[in-house]
Amino acid sequence: xxxxxxxxxxxxxxxxxxxxxxxxxxxxxxxxxxxxxxxxxxxxxxxxxxxxxxxxxxxxxxxxxxxxxxxxxxxxxxxxxxxxxxxxxxxxxxxxxxxxxxxxxxxxxxxxxxxxxxxxxxxxxxxxxxxxxxxxxxxxxxxxxxxxxxxxxxxxxxxxxxxxxxxxxxxxxxxxxxxxxxxxxxxxxxxxxxxxxxxxxxxxxxxxxxxxxxxxxxxxxxxxxxxxxxxxxxxxxxxxxxxxxxxxxxxxxxxxxxxxxxxxxxxxxxxxxxxxxxxxxxxxxxxxxxxxxxxxxxxxxxxxxxxxxxxxxxxxxxxxxxxxxxxxxxxxxxxxxxxxxxxxxxxxxxxxxxxxxxxxxxxxxxxxxxxxxxxxxxxxxxxxxxxxxxxxxxxxxxxxxxxxxxxxxxxxxxxxxxxxxxxxxxxxxxxxxxxxxxxxxxxxxxxxxxxxxxxxxxxxxxxxxxxxxxxxxxxxxxxxxxxxxxxxxxxxxxxxxxxxxxxxxxxxxxxxxxxxxxxxxxxxxxxxxxxxxxxxxxxxxxxxxxxxxxxxxxxxxxxxxxxxxxxxxxxxxxxxxxxxxxxxxxxxxxxxxxxxxxxxxxxxxxxxxxxxxxxxxxxxxxxxxxxxxxxxxxxxxxxxxxxxxxxxxxxxxxxxxxxxxxxxxxxxxxxxxxxxxxxxxxxxxxxxxxxxxxxxxxx
Amino acid sequence: xxxxxxxxxxxxxxxxxxxxxxxxxxxxxxxxxxxxxxxxxxxxxxxxxxxxxxxxxxxxxxxxxxxxxxxxxxxxxxxxxxxxxxxxxxxxxxxxxxxxxxxxxxxxxxxxxxxxxxxxxxxxxxxxxxxxxxxxxxxxxxxxxxxxxxxxxxxxxxxxxxxxxxxxxxxxxxxxxxxxxxxxxxxxxxxxxxxxxxxxxxxxxxxxxxxxxxxxxxxxxxxxxxxxxxxxxxxxxxxxxxxxxxxxxxxxxxxxxxxxxxxxxxxxxxxxxxxxxxxxxxxxxxxxxxxxxxxxxxxxxxxxxxxxxxxxxxxxxxxxxxxxxxxxxxxxxxxxxxxxxxxxxxxxxxxxxxxxxxxxxxxxxxxxxxxxxxxxxxxxxxxxxxxxxxxxxxxxxxxxxxxxxxxxxxxxxxxxxxxxxxxxxxxxxxxxxxxxxxxxxxxxxxxxx
Lengths: 699, 449
Fold this sequence. Notes:
Chain A has 699 residues and is of the alpha+beta class.
């Protein structure tokens, strides 16, 4: 307790290896060493290489640590001379690269999906080649059954595992929202995944929507993803619904789909109109126009339609032209003429390919050594990453406002309704409902809007060796939006940054079954609930680490978050993208101090209670009034509560001392300064630049 | 000087808009010699709203119909809008504010009239005289002495009366060294780092000129510094200009120390921006921050192109360089630029903040600012005459002090547990440096004060 705050013994939030998978990895490593039959062992040619150098990613002087590299069936492990271990899960590896041979050995650069980048130098080229080939194969599995989750065993029995899976119950969640009710009911239309393979079995639809209407609508919607309920706002009686784009064709319309939208609108007695949000930027929807080959034919048809239709002539012709061309391609958005009482809204979130290349650019920028402030900002700008984050946030805010201020139901869709739609629906619910800002509620939200509605986790995260064009950081963006909200509303969230980082870690780790496969149907076929474990109980067990000490549940009741999205409220998320670059981190954590103080307060309260009960006991024992007075006096000086207060005072002073050591740079753990000193003793100190992490400047 | 002459109209009905967050305020507007008052009437809760006229940076008037609008942009970066009834009244008030906010003479400025309750004049002045700091130094070492060579400000008008110099150097040598340095700013002790026994010095540039003049007393002074630290100690001269700029300065009589003349000292060039470019950077930053509607890309672009954060980074890394070499190399540091009153002070004060835990306390930080900025002769009057909104052509303005505050804030972000004071302290210092009822940041140096 005394060594306390800021000391190296305390595990900091958002840094350090995640102990969860670390322990597991140790077990796996042990199993591998014992000759256990694990998947992937046949790919391993070399299990141990000595004298490997691990380069510091941002050091300008090529500082390195020397140690031994181990290859297990599931992890790559580097143990340096100080016995510090670096674990890298094979599934986390995004790319392995062998660079040209140098005098000191063969460089091997590994980039991970959790934004760790390691740069090894292996002394012998043969070893390097072996490891390179092994990693190439181990990091890209061909079958689901080869993923880590199927061999991961946290020593739980079947009953415990099952309980873990039952922890989050979506039926329970819909009940919490207040459905089924007089307007909304559970539909059994998709019970056998007959209507839509990528939806869950249980779907909630307006009570007045009959099964033929649903079936009809699903035929009109891309991939059969017809409009269903995502979130129900009990007090406003408004709903967030989601679907995919309509296959409206050139002049096609679908009466059932129009009926279904009417039904959603009518299910909300508070407001007679509803919004349809197309989350795609207008120009993208319209770009179908360009792909159309027989433009001439369309123009003829369109112009005849224009002259026939008074209403269209009045409105912006160009817009209509494009929209209709769009419909000619068979995809697009709803024809406004066919839907009444509906307000259409476009919000410009770009598609997965734009997002993927944006993240790629961002990573290139922040991986640059000795980055200048200007290069950082121009790189950040040209990557467009924060622009995309802001777009997602703005869309969610529009959604929340429509419900909160206008009590209007909103139907959200993009193209297929599993990427941008998931982002907007889940963020919108998060803004509206304080429950989703608790640890458990956040898990429910992810289970509902992401997992059950078929966000294609396996394809987006590249779990298997598949199409690289399907990989996209859609979920990462969602987490980043949540992080921005936690920065703007530090008291609104029960969880902290570490929780978000841990979830991000596990969508890629394939250690738990939750995020494996692309939809519920696939998951059932894989028997994930029988063969793998759920992540959530493990996070709940570790809850202490993920608690936000500033959270106040009282002030949050019924509070809708209204974030400000002025451009300068968005900043680079250092702890995500530089999570493993310890040298770039600030070395003082207010979080630890607050957590320690919380802990002590709890201890103190407990002490007080103990003392009070002791006093009571003695009082009842000794009826003699005088004696008890003496007793009280004698108790006081040694009272543990007092002692605790004293130690609290010490504690309060301590950090200051620690701090000073750190800032002076004399702490041995702080390698940045010593590195700096090395450089300084060289002949030309004029070239020394103290790499004051540019990333830090942004916050 | 009569203030009454400048006040065209006593009062007018007006409505004040203070930004989107706060409700508008309606009431009677008054102008006094130093203040703009708005009295919303007897029953209102905030009974008086008050603005120091010295705070006004730029004023813009617009007349429409029979009412007018005045937009005041303050030095503390506030933007206020006054809606005034009557065209005549608007013009009069605008003219009065214009006249009163740009008073040239220091004597007529408000701090001379300001008498806060409970404080007597003379109290708390010389809270932190140089003698005080010398006592602290003397406890650790006896290689330094307090020299009163500048008693009548004849050697250096921008130094305080007493400065700390090496014990081995007498006052006459000091005087000759002063003649060799620009502005008479001979090398003096800025900070003594007890754990490593090294010192931080600051000075003006040596007047080597095109003939490469030398000054044996100046050389002797620096030799004495090294001898006083510890045998075999090395020193670094941190020049805050680029090598080219330093060479060019020779043409106008300045220059840098010649390598051969100062054995044991090594010269480092760490170019820092100053003056005009810094002010422009500041103006562009404030412009970028003022636009709430811009897209993300535009914002990042403007943030980048204003280069303000680059300046912050350069300054911090130079200060770290100085601090590191003192702490870990055991080297003495002499910092100078051209005049030694701007970027020099930035570096010396930040290096102290990094090295000295005491200066990170509330009292220590105040002492640091008093010693390294006020007494060391940072020309506050010239540098802070106008802030980012002024249309006046900038002459000597530069947000050097703001840059210092920003650097401290950045340190606070990285080491949230190390500074005893918070952001509020830095903001308050910024406000007071630009427009204050107090006299601390008035004038350019001790002599004028």
